[in-house]
Write a structure and sequence with these properties.
The structure holds 2 protein chains of 2 kinds. By secondary structure, chain A is an alpha+beta fold. Chain A is built from 13 helices and 12 strands. Among the domains of chain A are: about 130-160, no CATH class; about 180-215 and about 290-415, Thiolase/Chalcone synthase (Peroxisomal Thiolase, Chain A, domain 1). In chain A, strands 1, 2, 3, 4, 5, 8, 9, 10, 11 and 12 form a 10-stranded mixed β-sheet that branches. A two-stranded antiparallel sheet of chain A has the order 6-7. Chain B has 2 domains: about 30-200, NAD(P)-binding Rossmann-like Domain (Rossmann fold); about 225-460, NAD(P)-binding Rossmann-like Domain (Rossmann fold), CATH 3.40.50. In chain B, the strands form 3 sheets. Chain B has a 7-stranded parallel β-sheet, sandwiched between helices. In chain B, strands 2-1-5-6-7-8 form a 6-stranded parallel β-sheet, sandwiched between helices. In chain B, helix 7 packs across helix 15 (about 435-445). Classes of the chains: A alpha+beta, B alpha/beta.
Chain lengths: ~425, ~475
């Protein structure tokens, strides 16, 4: 490769559809529908109809087999030029942020000058899988050359094979759901119910304030009659949250409730990126640059480490490479899978000697507890929100993003306002 | 659809309606389409400017056949018959700019009489006279106003979707100043503008015609901002400007963002989700223009279309409904103009540009249950007249349209019988389409149309209300 200089990849803007709780108004919508809607909103916001962009990178965590080309199909259904290529990526809840990193890296290497990154997820339109017995029998019947073989293959199907396998967010290697895994972490790190409820209440209060201030006027496009994130409860309080019964963990010391855990959500979010010179030549807003990113992974299968604390592996490497400490960040965005995930991560970072996060700089316009968490869409939501917040604070403002993901992975990134 | 409307739409219902005098309304000629028949030009006394303007437009004209004794024939009972045109006329244009005396008005009658039954469907009568302020003497001024009475009556008497309009020229108005308005009135774009009097003046210094512009795509390379563009009349305005070459910034409230995005993407424009009542609205518009369409492309035209209704009889009208309507329909327009008119503001209005507001027949005539709306819409008219004076030294025109009954989602909610009355109480016996309002606004914003300034043009099919 001849490229000698690394170019600067900047965040130009973003667009998402309001997030909606599972089984709600987006239940009839597919991942492709939602991703296309988010893309069309972005295209309209920046007047890109008919234009060819460098690449669109996106993905979903819960995917139908028909969606092998989800992002490309969304591009073809959108107002963008059909000459815009697209790629599907997948890294569990890190998908959206990883897609941003992917596009930024291509821009940095001079391979593309513009790109869109993000993701979508529908918990409502999740694929329902057939049992292994049924699947294998059907494949055998399909392969059979003689009618008798086909009958034999089909005859091997047992009644129990016909029951559908419901979708579940379960770790393949531990068999534990995300909530059950986090309950172990919560207990291990001694995260109290009060601290969790306080964080959850702050998320709702902050997100509600941001909506009423019009912060999302140029970040969100309504969809199917929804104009605001439906998980948001502006009037929630610590007292109301304290009254909820626990849903994850067992025994009297269980602390995790539906109020301090993120609901299953449908939604899509995208970010528009460009090479800085390209963005300036087009007069586009130059909100922030992507400074650096790092992914870490934890040894959670043995039980030695925690499933959702993998950012603790990524962050020291990222900060060391950039010569930064937690105190250098004006804003910090930690994805709220559960309130206790955020609190356990902060505790782990402190224990690892990375410093303390100033809570007044944490998730200042709310996060997943209030907005909801359509898995692959969360990265795009956070990047666009943080880039705008940093830009409002002025050039040089720095922001940190940390997103935990299934499989014991954690994606971290640094943005700096331009 | 109610039971009455369902019956009305059946063949039997339509037959009954026809017998009781409710004829099927004519289908109007629309779009950038000239009349199919010939255009006759009648010149009274010393005119000339109209002929020049039609020549600029490459419109070939024929001589009219006036109703004078030597042109008449007699039927078999010996009665006088006015002369008739061999082929249906597409339009009759009367240059009455030289008419100063009451006796000269006979010439207008003589030209009109054969045309009244000689026009094709969606034909045109266009009378061009002088503004009273542009002529000397009591009789000449009275005569100038007499043309207005003639025009309004012609509009009422014409059938088959034909219209009549009067252009009044200020002193010094050239063929160049007049051409854009003649072009508009002749074409199908003016379908629902009927019985109106429009004043044309010399364009201001710094408002050039610009050589030989592409008459079909006058907005090529120009940015036009349209508020309330997500649906209805606003979406039609956005589409019409885009058809004519404009780069459109489509603005609407964030809650209408999805419909707005569809409009913007369809026409290759950009969408700006914005509550126009926010104090920073003007700055947001300018910022959007710069970051989407470049710092060197200021706004050519600002169309203040966004509007709301909160209807209540005054006896039931509270301060919230009062304030909301006045803020959206009038105060926001004032605030945004003030910001965008700041000379040299990147993304603001160009030095040479156009502003259009939306008034309403409710603002002209008042309307039961719409004190707040009528206040705001009459206010828009007042603003146009005041801004004309305020901007006298800058090559910017300010105008408004006043739509009558237009077929939109909003008016579809009116009960059927009432709606049908609204439709029928104008000279064209039908409601207008959103595109009719849009075409009129595009004409007011045409770069070639520097001559129409400070006007409120009704798009109402010559509705009785407030006429």
């Amino acid at each position: 490769m001849a490229a000698a200089t690394v170019r600067t990849a900047v965040i130009v803007g973003g667009n998402r559809i309001p997030f909606a709780k599972v089984g709600g108004p987006y239940a009839p919508a597919s991942n492709q529908d939602m991703l296309t809607a988010a893309l069309d909103g972005l295209v309209a916001r920046f007047g890109l109809a008919g234009q060819q962009l460098g690449e669109v990178a996106g993905g979903a965590v819960l995917k139908h087999t028909r969606d092998f080309n989800l992002t490309r199909e969304a591009v073809l259904g959108s107002a963008l030029s059909p000459h815009t290529p697209a790629v599907d990526l997948q890294q569990a809840c890190g998908t959206g942020l990883e897609a941003v990193i992917y596009v930024a890296n291509k821009i940095a290497l001079g391979q593309i000058t513009t790109g869109v990154a993000g993701g979508v997820d529908s918990a409502s339109d999740a694929p329902i899988v057939v049992t292994e017995g049924l699947r294998r029998a059907l494949l055998r019947a399909n392969r059979a050359k003689r009618p008798l073989d086909r009958v034999k293959a089909l005859a091997s199907i047992r009644p129990r094979d016909l029951a559908p396998v419901p979708p579940a967010v379960v770790e393949a290697r531990t068999g534990l759901s995300m909530g059950e895994s986090q309950a172990i972490t919560t207990r291990k790190w001694g995260i109290t119910r009060e601290a969790q409820d306080e964080l959850a209440a702050a998320s709702h209060t902050n997100l509600a304030r941001a909506w009423s201030e019009g912060f999302f006027d140029d970040l969100v496009t309504p969809y199917l009659g929804v104009t605001r994130d439906t998980p948001l409860r502006p009037d929630t309080t610590v007292e109301k949250l304290a009254a909820l019964r626990t849903v994850f963990g067992r025994g009297d010391d269980a602390t995790m409730t539906a109020g301090n855990s993120t609901p299953l959500t449908d939604g899509a979010a995208l970010v528009l990126l460009a090479e800085e010179g390209e963005a300036r030549a087009r007069n586009w807003p130059v909100l922030a640059r992507l400074v650096d990113a790092e992914v870490g992974a934890s040894d959670y299968v043995t039980g030695a480490e925690d499933l959702l604390l993998a950012p603790t592996h990524a962050l020291p490497r990222l900060l060391a490479r950039q010569g930064l400490t937690l105190a250098d960040f004006d804003l910090v965005e930690v994805h709220e899978a559960f309130a206790s995930t955020v609190l356990a991560n902060l505790a782990a970072w402190e224990q690892a000697g990375l410093g303390v996060v100033d809570r007044t700089r944490l998730n200042v316009n709310g996060s997943s507890l209030a907005a909801g968490h359509p898995f692959a869409a969360t990265g795009g939501r956070i990047v666009a929100t943080l880039a705008k917040l940093l830009h409002d604070r002025g050039p040089g403002s720095k922001g940190l993003i940390s997103i935990c993901a299934a499989g014991g992975q954690g994606v971290t990134a640094i943005l700096e306002a331009m | 659809m109610g039971a009455l409307e369902t019956i009305y739409r059946t063949p039997v219902g339509r037959g009954l309606a026809r017998r009781t005098g409710l004829a099927d309304p004519p289908v109007l000629r629309r779009g950038r389409v000239l009349p199919s028949g010939p255009v006759a030009l009648g010149e009274l006394a010393d005119g000339g400017v109209v002929r020049q303007a039609l020549a600029l437009l490459d419109v070939r004209v024929i001589d009219p056949i006036p109703d004078v004794p030597e042109n008449r024939t007699r039927d078999d009972k010996g009665r006088d018959l006015p002369p008739a045109y061999q082929d249906s006329l597409g339009a009759l244009v009367i240059d009455a700019t030289g008419v100063r005396e009451i006796t000269h008005l006979e010439g207008v009658r003589a030209l009109l009489r054969p045309a009244m039954k000689g026009l094709e469907r969606s034909g045109r009568i266009i009378i061009v006279g002088m503004a009273a302020s542009a002529v000397e003497g009591l009789e000449a001024r009275a005569v100038a106003q007499a043309l207005d009475g003639i025009n309004r009556t012609v509009g009422r008497e014409l059938r088959g979707g034909s219209t009549s309009n009067l252009l009044r020229l200020e002193a010094g108005t050239s063929a160049d100043d007049l051409a854009a308005s003649l072009w508009f009135l002749l074409q199908g774009r003016s379908a629902f503008v009927d019985g109106q009097t429009i004043t044309v003046a010399p364009r201001k210094p710094g408002d050039p015609v610009g050589g030989t512009p592409d008459r079909e795509h006058p907005f090529t390379g120009r940015v036009v901002v349209v508020t309330g563009a997500a649906r209805g009349i606003g979406a039609a305005i956005a589409r019409t400007f885009a058809r004519d070459g404009a780069t459109v910034v489509a603005v609407d409230v964030p809650a209408s963002g999805d419909a707005l995005a569809r409009v913007a993407n369809e026409i290759g424009g950009s969408a700006l989700q914005l509550d126009i009542t926010r104090p920073e609205a003007g700055a947001r518009i300018a910022g959007h223009v710069v970051t989407r369409h470049g710092a060197d492309t200021p706004i050519w035209a600002m169309v203040h279309n966004a509007g709301i209704t909160r209807d209540k009889l005054l006896a039931n009208l509270d301060e919230a409904r009062w304030a909301a309507v006045l803020d959206v329909n009038l105060a926001a327009e004032l605030r945004i103009n003030e910001v965008l008119l700041d000379p040299g503001l990147p993304g603001g209005l160009a030095d040479n540009s156009r502003i259009v507001g939306i008034a309403s027949t409710s603002g002209i005539a008042g309307n039961k249950g719409q004190a707040n709306y009528s206040a705001s819409k009459a206010g828009v008219m007042g603003l146009v007249w005041a801004m004309k004076e305020e901007l006298v030294g800058r090559p910017i025109t300010v105008n408004a349209v006043a739509p009558g009954f237009i077929e939109t989602e909003m008016t579809a909610a009116i009960p059927f019988a009432q709606r049908e009355v609204f439709r029928r109480t104008n000279s064209l016996s039908q409601g207008g389409q959103p595109v009719d309002v849009a075409e009129t606004i595009a004409w007011l914003c045409d770069p070639a149309n520097g001559g129409v300034n400070g006007q409120v043009v009704r798009v109402c099919g010559q509705n009785l209300v407030g006429a």
